Inverse folding.
């Protein structure tokens, strides 16, 4: 029993509110978790950070009948943190070579932009990230939980 | 580390579940880590990377693997890998 519910019952026991009022207050309390965004637990704090990055893929390509192929990946955010830290210790000369190789492949990405200082903000922003790709044969969903 | 085969659940469709407890991973890795520690230390100095920071990051990386799940469910086979 949480504190709010106990407080309502105490007020009812003390005669400060009627049973109808207590009923309405408890009903209002029960509605609160459903107002939270999907994927958030009832215990989750408003500023709670996501713990996992999920990638769910459903593909019907190459299948004549039956259920589609499914891929379900759950990556701990802690691993993303470690990955960014790992990028931070790459020696500058290696980083330059990686950047050049990415540029040759047509990927304009600078490893120097990955900084541990920006990591927490990035993870905080991931909380609201949802990518949905839905075409005739494939469904891809990327989200955090 | 467990490796399960479930022929009864779906005879024509093999299912594999690989569950790797991260603590058990450390048991075979520990002697290797001890052997490689001096080499890693020298490599870090050559590459001008703080060896202690390097070790801390790799520790964070291995710890971060905990909770990783990859599941592939295909009509031909189902494979699930979990690091717990």
């Amino acid at each position: 029993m949480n504190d709010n519910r106990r407080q309502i019952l105490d007020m009812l026991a003390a005669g400060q509110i009627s049973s109808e009022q207590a009923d309405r207050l408890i009903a209002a309390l029960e509605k609160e978790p459903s107002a939270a965004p999907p994927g958030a637990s009832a215990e989750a704090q408003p500023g709670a950070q996501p713990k996992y990055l999920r990638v769910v893929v459903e593909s019907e390509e190459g299948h004549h009948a039956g259920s589609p192929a499914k891929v379900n990946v759950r990556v701990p955010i802690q691993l993303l943190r470690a990955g960014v830290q790992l990028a931070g210790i790459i020696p500058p000369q290696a980083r330059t070579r990686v950047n050049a190789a990415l540029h040759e492949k047509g990927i304009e990405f600078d490893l120097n932009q990955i900084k541990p200082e920006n990591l927490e903000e990035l993870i905080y922003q991931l909380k609201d990230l949802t990518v949905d790709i839905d075409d005739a044969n494939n469904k891809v969903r990327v989200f955090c939980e | 580390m467990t490796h399960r085969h479930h022929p009864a659940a779906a005879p024509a469709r093999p299912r594999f579940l690989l569950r790797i407890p991260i603590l058990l991973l450390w048991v075979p890795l520990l002697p290797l880590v001890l052997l490689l520690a001096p080499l890693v230390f020298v490599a870090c100095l050559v590459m001008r990377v703080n060896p202690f920071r390097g070790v801390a990051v790799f520790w964070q990386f291995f710890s971060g693997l905990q909770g990783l799940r990859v599941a592939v469910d295909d009509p031909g086979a189902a494979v699930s890998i979990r690091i717990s």
Summary: The CA atoms of residues 21 and 50 of chain A lie 37 Å apart. Chain A touches chain B at residues 51-52, 63, 66-67, 69-76, 78-83, 85-86, 88-89, 91, 94 (CB under 8 Å).
